[in-house]
Design goal:
15 strands, alpha+beta, 13 helices, Nucleoside Triphosphate Pyrophosphohydrolase, single chain
Length: about 375
C-alpha cells in the first residue's frame, strides 16, 4: 500500500503521499522486530560436555578416543567380523523423515543459530533405517532412505548442546538425550527419529605403506577442527545411490561412497585407487549415535608419486591440508589395535575419532587375517597389481 501511494504521488494526490508514507512507516514498525528476531535468533545454544553414555549388553562395547575420553563410539565386534564377507544387499525406502516434535518445534530457530556466519549447503544425504547384525549381514537387507544436511544439524548434531529460550533462559531441549530411550539405552536405528546420516571413512595406503591424511579445518560442524582424519571421510549422499543402485551388495555401496569421498577430498583419480575393504562399523555417540563405516583403500601409487597433490578448491572449507607420507607401523597396530603407538607422535596427539576407529578396525582385522597382514607388511613393487 505504501509503494502504491508513493507511486501515485506524481499525479498530484497529497492524500496518496500521506497514505504512502504511512504505509512505509507501518511496514517498518511491524517488520523491524521480526527482522531483528530473525537476525538475533529466538534460541541460544549452550555447549556442555558432561554427557552420559549408555549401558551395554552382550557383544556391545564402548570405545573412547585415547586423546579425548569425551569422544565415545558404540560398536559390536561381531558386526566388524561379519562385514568383510557380508552378503547383505540394500533397499531404498521412500519413508519421509519426521523429526521428534520437541525438535521440530524449534528447528527454525536452531537453524538460524547454527548457520549464521557459516557457509552451509543443504545437500541431500542418505540415512540408515536399521542396524547391521551378523545375521542381517549374512544375507538380509539394509534399509536406507533420504534426508538432508539441515535435518542432521537439527538432530544428531545437537548432541552436546542445550537449546535455551533466549528471552527467558528456559531449557527448550537437551540434545544429548535425543539418541537414547527412557531406559538410557541407545535407541536402535529402526526406532530412532534422528537424521542418522551414514558416515564413511577410509584409510588411504600407498604402495610404500604410508598413510594419506587430511587435516580438518577449525570450527567444522562435524568436528572440533585441527585434527587428523582419514583422507577420505564424509557422508553418503544421493550420488552414491545413482552409482550403486538399490539391490546391490551393501558393502559395495559403502565402499563406493568411501572411494568417492577419498577422490573428492584428496584430489586422487580412479586410476590411483585399487581395492577398498569395509573394515568396521560404529555409532558415534558424540554425533547423536549416527552410523559410521570405516575402511581401507590401497593406492596404486607411492607417497613420492603424490608429491604436489593438494586439497581440491571446493574442499578447502573443510580440509586445510594433506599429509601424503604418514608412517604407519603395522606390527605395533596388530599387537595393540587400541593403541596409537603405530603413528608418529605429532599425528597421534591430534587423531580424530574416524581415524582412530579406522586404525582400530584394521588392527583387529590384521590379527584375524595373517594373509592380509603379510600382504600389507611388504611394500608393493612396481609390478604388483
Amino acid at each position: 500500500m505504501g509503494v502504491i501511494g508513493l507511486a501515485s504521488t506524481p499525479l498530484g494526490s497529497f492524500p496518496a503521499l500521506l497514505a504512502g508514507l504511512a504505509g512505509v512507516l507501518l511496514s517498518v514498525i511491524l517488520l523491524a522486530p521480526e527482522w531483528l528476531a530473525l537476525r538475533r535468533g529466538r534460541v541460544r545454544l549452550v555447549r556442555h560436555r558432561g554427557v552420559s553414555t549408555p549401558p551395554t549388553a552382550g557383544t556391545e562395547t564402548l570405545v573412547r578416543l585415547p586423546t579425548d575420553h569425551h569422544e565415545v563410539a558404540w560398536c559390536r565386534p561381531d558386526v566388524d567380523e561379519a562385514l568383510p564377507d557380508a552378503k547383505a544387499t540394500y533397499g531404498w525406502s521412500a519413508e519421509r523423515l519426521e523429526l521428534p516434535r520437541r525438535v521440530a518445534a524449534h528447528s527454525g530457530p536452531i537453524l538460524v543459530a547454527r548457520v549464521r556466519r557459516r557457509r552451509t549447503f543443504n545437500g541431500r544425504l542418505v540415512r540408515q533405517l536399521n542396524d547391521p547384525t551378523p545375521e542381517l549381514l549374512g544375507g538380509g537387507e539394509v534399509r536406507l532412505g533420504c534426508t538432508d544436511y539441515y535435518a542432521l544439524l537439527c538432530s544428531n548434531y545437537l548432541f552436546g548442546w542445550r537449546v535455551l529460550d533466549r528471552a527467558t533462559g528456559a531449557l527448550n531441549l537437551d540434545g544429548s538425550l535425543l539418541p537414547y530411550g527412557e531406559n538410557g539405552r541407545l535407541l536402535p536405528l529402526s526406532q530412532s527419529r534422528l537424521a542418522n546420516v551414514i558416515g564413511v571413512s577410509t584409510l588411504a595406503l600407498t604402495t610404500d605403506r604410508r598413510l594419506v591424511l587430511a587435516w580438518q579445518q577449525p570450527e567444522g560442524e562435524a568436528g572440533p577442527g585441527g585434527l587428523a582424519a582419514p583422507a577420505g571421510s564424509g557422508s553418503v549422499d544421493l550420488i552414491d545411490v545413482d552409482d550403486t543402485p538399490p539391490g546391490a551388495m551393501f558393502t559395495d555401496f559403502i565402499s563406493s561412497a568411501m572411494r568417492r569421498e577419498l577422490m573428492e577430498e584428496s584430489h586422487l583419480n580412479p586410476d590411483q585407487l585399487r581395492k577398498t575393504r569395509v573394515l568396521g562399523y560404529f555409532r558415534w555417540l558424540n554425533r547423536g549415535g549416527k552410523p559410521e563405516y570405516v575402511g581401507l583403500t590401497e593406492l596404486a601409487v607411492s607417497s613420492d608419486d603424490l608429491v604436489g597433490t593438494d586439497v581440491r578448491l571446493v574442499e578447502t572449507p573443510y580440509v586445510q591440508g594433506l599429509t601424503l607420507d604418514c608412517r604407519l607401523d603395522l606390527h605395533l597396530l596388530r599387537r595393540d589395535p587400541n593403541s596409537l603407538d603405530c603413528l608418529p607422535d605429532d599425528v597421534a596427539e591430534a587423531v580424530s575419532m574416524p581415524l582412530y576407529m579406522c586404525l582400530r578396525a584394521l588392527g583387529f582385522l590384521l590379527r584375524r587375517d595373517d594373509e592380509l597382514y603379510g600382504h600389507l607388511s611388504i611394500p608393493a613393487g612396481s609390478g604388483d597389481r
